[in-house]
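Support request, please re-run this one:
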Amino acid sequence: MVSGRTKVLCVIGSPIAHSLSPLIQNAAIRAAGLDYVYIALPVRPQALRSAVRGLCDAGICGFNVTIPFKTAILDLMDVLDEDARRIRAVNTVVVEPDGTLVGYNTDVCGFLAALIKRSIVLNGKQVVLLGAGGAARAALWGVLKQGAKKVSIGVRNPMKGMLLCEDFAADGDIQAFHFSDAVFSERLHAADLIIQTTPMGMAPHIQEMPPIDWSVVNPKAVAYDLIYTPMKTRFLREAEQHGLSVVNGEDMLIAQGAEAFYLWTGVRPDVEVMTHTLREELRRRG
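Re-run finished. Output below.
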């Protein structure tokens, strides 16, 4: 039961009504027996600063950040963890008792959790990233932290890919290529892991996918799509048809939420409860 002692957590974004975070986080809160509640709050794009100030003044102890605020909120943080600083995006904020705002990016540990769960080792391996947006930044930093030997980025906009490479040039061997580049085909043939970071294939646009020539792809590679709705995108279905092992975005979603939960509460949540809640809701939505 919510009372005057209940600690409040939330997610802010615009739009935010579609968010599954309240459902998943509240299930974890109940399972842990904590006196917290997690809600979704729509924030007007131009009102981020005043909204954050209001949340802190109201005594909130932490919140998640989603589109379109992950980058804009950087300037409002007092402290940034390494992942947030390197990716230049915050998805989790802890409000310390003295009002200090600490920004984290749990997408990195969430992204890596799915690989660790499957004993996929990246040290010395070759990785291909599809896309150069915000999700690609988290995935790129994650694979570099794990010692990937070479990372090749497939893009439609070479300039966007080049800028991403420049941001992480000091951290590893990274190059960007247009999808149609012959060298990119060679990188697909040598890849140990192919990561789909674009929104292509996400419901309701389930027939979309990046332009991949499966005939040149290493059949021993792992295909990882960060999307979790649908559970198996066209990209993953076609990867399976060509012999690749596949991973979807479910574990990433749960693991990044679980890490945020721990940062706020100091308690490790029941990830099985979180996963079951997510799957039931996705089944309900059809």
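The chain has ten helices and twelve strands. The radius of gyration is 19 Å.
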